[in-house]
Design goal:
Layout lengths: L1 H32 L15 H7 L2 E12 L5 E11 L5 E11 L5 E8 L13 E8 L12 E9 L1
Antiparallel strand pairs: 1-2, 2-5, 3-4, 3-6
């Protein structure tokens, strides 16, 4: 009996090494050729002559800001406005650039945001939508004035 157990030990050991090797190889391949779902970088929306011309038809009304503490007791600043499509085209997505300034009118924070979810219905001509954008950290040099907002890209429907 002892010789039979000894002969099984190398076979079981080799099978274990092969299984571990396959698992490690699969993990390496999976990590190399897959990308996390949230890491995909969004391409900027177009801002060609057609989009630049139409950008003047997008208006940001009723600007407001507020501050609140979140559940971790961190201060969050909210930028609110109403976006209006004053043109004659349906818009699928609007990309804006928000700039916060210091007392010397220098930009201290520049951020690009998409205003609508990909599944949102088209933004119709004459329509208005409320927008809320949270910021967990704004540099302390901020002059506490409402930031500038500009259209930096449009996608028409």
């Amino acid at each position: 009996m002892p010789t039979e157990e000894r002969s099984r030990l190398p076979v079981a050991f080799l099978v274990g090494i092969v299984v571990v090797g396959l698992l490690v190889g699969g993990a390496v391949l999976l990590s190399r050729y897959s990308t996390p779902a949230g890491s995909e970088v969004e391409k900027p929306l177009p801002k060609g002559p057609e989009e630049q011309g139409y950008a003047s038809q997008i208006h940001f009304l009723e600007p407001k800001m507020s501050r609140a503490a979140n559940f971790l007791n961190q201060e969050v600043t909210y930028v609110f406005c109403t976006v209006e499509n004053d043109g004659d085209r349906k818009i699928q997505q609007i990309e804006i650039t928000i700039e916060f300034h210091d007392p010397f009118s220098q930009v201290i924070l520049r951020d690009k945001q998409r205003l609508f979810l990909p599944t949102a219905p088209p933004f119709l001509p004459g329509q208005q939508r409320d927008v809320q954008i949270p910021y967990e950290h704004i540099p302390p040099q901020w002059n506490n004035v409402y930031p500038s907002i500009a259209v930096s890209g449009l996608a028409f429907k």
